[in-house]
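so my prof wants the structure for this chain in the tokens format not the other one, which i didnt know existed until like an hour ago. anyway here's the sequence
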Amino acid sequence: MVELHHLHHRGRQRPEPFPHAFNGRNGRNRGTAVAHSGAEVQNSMKRLALALVATLSVMVPAAVASKTTKPVSMTEAIRHQLAMLPRYGVFDNLEFKVDGGTVTLLGEVTRPVVKDDAASAVRHVEGVNMVVNHIEVLPLSPNDDRIRLAVYRAVYSAPSLSTRYGFQASPSIHIVVKNGVVRLEGVVANEADRTIAGMRANGVFGSFKVENNLVVGS
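here's what i got, hopefully its the right format
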């Protein structure tokens, strides 16, 4: 199963350009103090600029080297490409198998274009020589569409699930519906979330069966 990884960026405060080292206290000598302060600030800025240039000349090559030498496996690259598909949604589920340079795509999607997008994206991964596309396009069904929406509302309206998963760019609980049978696929944080999602899905009227395939991740 394609395991989606979400990156969380933590905001950082901008540092002051340089500390306010000068503060004129004597009103009678304020003009002289400001003049001297201005000259000293300019000199300080020049010294700071030279120091930054020297520091960056050492840090930048080291940073570039660390990025270029970090290994990325073919499996990780394929998983990333599939997770980043712009039309891959909560009602789709993608899986894949790797055998040497051959990648077999599996799973179900609601639209044919997602199947084509997946194959196209994986073909561009370094090391992939052949793509076998066994992704199933789910049949059109107004009843299945109704069940999808009902299960989505039931699962993601649960307070604990909504808070943890509802605001993700790509929700990790996927809902697959075919001929009235519901499958929950994806990764959750703990067993309680898995149980709650299954109970909410089972409470939806009109589905014949609910299969809870959610996996508890680390």
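also thought this was worth mentioning. The two ends are 15 Å apart (CA to CA).
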